[in-house]
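Researcher: Here's a chain I'd like modeled. Treat it as a single chain, no partners, no ligands.
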Amino acid sequence: MKKLFLSFIICFLFTSMISVNASKEATAGALINTWTWEKSIGGSENPYVATPKTIGFTKKVVFTEDGRVITYKNNVEIRNSAYQIEKGKGYFDQSEHELITFEGKTYVIEKLDNQNLTIVSNNQDGTRTIYKR
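Model: Modeled as a single isolated chain. Structure tokens:
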């Protein structure tokens, strides 16, 4: 009976690990591309909306297959750093989400599809940043 129970636990853990890895790989696969910044909305104390027109510069991020994110301002590379995707709790709802960490900050991946990437700062500020392909 103990062997059967132990076998069940091992199978469950193995299946869970496969599921988490498959989810991370799917997210990473959809993320790999060039994303152009459309706007940022946020600021809990002083709410704001920033766009390339209002802020005076363009921005894009390129997520690569080898786990790097390259940030451009007005088409000039300003940062090249690693990114990491993992499951974790969102600051606002304490629910499990796909999180992405890069440039020293962690974000909840709110929306990711063929044309849209929306990330939300995983802190009390909660700035929402919207990118398009």
